[in-house]
Amino acid sequence: MFLHEEVLAMTDPEQPLQREALRYTEQGQAATANLMNALSENWSAVMRAAGGVGSSAATSPPSPAELIDRSFDFTIRMIETQRAFAHQLLEAGMPVAQAMEQATDSVTDKTQHGTTQGPGGASDRTPG
C-alpha cells in the first residue's frame, strides 16, 4: 500500500476510529452549547439580583469604592475559574495530542523509510 493510500485510509470518515472521533466531537459541542445556555441563564439571574430587579429588599446602592472592589473581586474569581478550566482542557486533550504526535511520527518514519529503503526507493535503484 502506498503512503497516500494509508493517509487516505486514516482520514476516511467511514473508518471506526474516525466515526468515534466525530461522535465525541459532536458530544463535546453539544455539551459546550448546553454549558453556555446554563451560564447565560445563571448570569442573567445574577445580574437581575445584583441590580435589584426582582428584589424586595430596599438597600442603598453600593458606593463607587465598593463597586470597584466587587468588580475586581469578581474578575479575579472569573480569571481563576478560567485558568482552572484551561488546565482541565489541557489535561483532557493530552491523550489526543500524544496520539496525534505518535501518528505523525509513524507517518514520518514510513515516509522516510519508504523513500530511502523500500521497494522502488531511491536506495534500491541503480542508475542506467
What's the short version?
The chain has 128 residues and is an all-alpha fold. The chain has 3 helices and no strands. The longest helix has 53 residues.
Q: What attributes does this structure have?
A:
3 helices; single chain; mainly alpha; 128 residues
Structure, described:
This protein is mostly helical and 128 residues long. 75% of the residues lie in helices and 0% in strands. It has three helices and no strands. The longest helix has 53 residues, at 64-116. The protein is elongated, with a radius of gyration of 28 Å.
C-alpha end-to-end distance: 27 Å
Strand content: under 5%
Major sheet attributes: none
The share of residues in helices is: over 70%
The value of Rg in angstroms is 28 Å
Structural class: mainly alpha
Q: Tell how many strands the DSSP assignment holds.
A: 0
Q: What would the average pLDDT be, to the nearest integer?
A: 77
Low-confidence stretches: none
Give the overall shape. Answer: elongated
Number of helices: 3
- Order of secondary-structure elements: HHH
Task: Give the SSE map.
Blueprint: H1 3-10, H2 16-50, H3 64-116
